[in-house]
């Protein structure tokens, strides 16, 4: 087959242009959703006043306090957490060559829940005699315990894969086994907990973006930004791994090293997010699949699109969760689970057709 001069470059330019356009649309939608999320709530703020408050030229001090002290940190936390979980899920699905790869399915989230429950039982970090029932009396101890156990779970997965060879099957099966083990451990602790300790354990497992203040948001943002850079640098290697391990090795990719480093970074950013916010499921599993069906499997575009798509999905979910049963606030993890399960089933059915 012969092509006229310039025909292939034009086709390739259009091919790349469509993907870039999709990413730009996601970015614009995310920006508009951020303004919408900040404007909606028990006190409705016109979007023009939101923009003025963000620019520091607001004439209403009440709006400025609501925007900067309450709604903006929560909205930005939702964006950062959704982006981090989504890019970690996209990387895990490629590294493991398994569509079910995600922080939730590999047992990392379950390990964090066990760490938090252990902290509540042994250190009393979740007992509070004032305010909301079960609210953490010392949230940093609970956060630290959840973070350490998350990294421990990731370390076990990586360690066993090193002993047996870094095959995707070993990593997935190890993660599933660890998830069952940590779930059993959490249930064991809950059985012996008193009412306040049990309330604290359950309270922590509800993923909630409102827990993070500006300082914690800064930590989340730095960790997620570093992981984004790492994954984008590895995008070409991930494309090669998608073609098969032997093909990737033939192209000069050190598959085992790329796989282990990718798992380590994905586990680290996931552990930080879960430790600060609690368990937020399905975002890291569903978003990469949704984006992949729209933009393809080229990780040069799949990763940034997953970042934006994850931030957009969790931001919209968090906004709906705040408004759905107002004045009460529904934890965003409940909504993502309700939305994620049917969406994922629909994707599976569509894939079979």
Describe this structure in words.
This protein is mostly helical and 353 residues long. It has one domain: ABC transporter involved in vitamin B12 uptake, BtuC (Orthogonal Bundle). It contains 14 helices and no strands. The chain has helices at residues 7-39, 47-55, 61-96, 108-122, 139-164, 168-192, 195-205, 214-233, 235-242, 245-250, 255-277, 283-295, 299-324, 332-352. The two termini are 32 Å apart. The relative contact order is 0.15.
Highlighted features:
353 residues; mainly alpha; ABC transporter involved in vitamin B12 uptake, BtuC
CATH hierarchy: architecture: Orthogonal Bundle
Instruction: Quote the CATH topology.
Output: ABC transporter involved in vitamin B12 uptake, BtuC
On the 0-100 scale, what is the average pLDDT?
A: 85
Please indicate the count of domains.
Answer: 1
H-E string:
HHHHHHHHHHHHHH
């Amino acid at each position: 087959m012969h092509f006229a001069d310039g025909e292939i470059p034009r086709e390739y330019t259009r091919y790349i242009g469509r993907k870039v356009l999709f990413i730009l649309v996601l970015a614009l939608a995310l920006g508009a959703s951020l303004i919408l999320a900040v404007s909606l709530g028990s006190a409705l703020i016109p979007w023009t006043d939101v923009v003025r408050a963000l620019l520091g030229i607001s004439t209403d001090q009440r709006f400025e306090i609501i925007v900067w002290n309450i709604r903006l940190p929560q909205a930005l936390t939702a964006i950062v957490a959704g982006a981090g979980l989504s890019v970690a899920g996209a990387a895990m699905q490629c590294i493991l060559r398994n569509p079910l790869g995600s922080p939730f399915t590999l047992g990392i989230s379950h390990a964090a829940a066990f760490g938090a429950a252990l902290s509540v039982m042994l250190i009393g970090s979740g007992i509070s005699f004032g305010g909301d029932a079960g609210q953490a009396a010392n949230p940093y101890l609970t956060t630290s315990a959840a973070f350490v156990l998350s990294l421990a779970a990731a370390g076990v997965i990586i360690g066993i894969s090193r002993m047996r060879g870094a095959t995707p099957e070993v990593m997935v099966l190890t993660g599933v086994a660890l998830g069952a083990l940590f779930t059993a451990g959490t249930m064991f602790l809950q059985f012996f907990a008193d009412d306040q300790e049990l309330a604290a354990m359950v309270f922590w497992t509800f993923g909630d973006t409102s827990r993070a203040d500006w300082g914690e948001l800064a930590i989340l943002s730095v960790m997620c930004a570093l992981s984004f850079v790492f994954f984008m640098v590895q995008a070409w290697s991930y494309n090669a791994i998608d073609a098969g391990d032997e093909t990737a090795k033939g192209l000069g990719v050190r598959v085992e090293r790329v796989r282990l480093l990718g798992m380590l970074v994905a586990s680290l950013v996931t552990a930080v997010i879960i430790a600060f916010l609690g368990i937020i499921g399905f975002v890291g599993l569903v978003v990469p699949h949704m984006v992949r069906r729209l933009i393809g499997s080229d990780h040069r575009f799949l990763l940034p699109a997953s970042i934006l798509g994850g931030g957009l999905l969790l931001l919209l979910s968090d906004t709906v969760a705040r408004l759905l049963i107002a004045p009460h606030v529904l934890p965003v993890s409940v909504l993502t689970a309700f939305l994620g399960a049917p969406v994922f089933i629909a994707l599976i059915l569509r894939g079979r057709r």
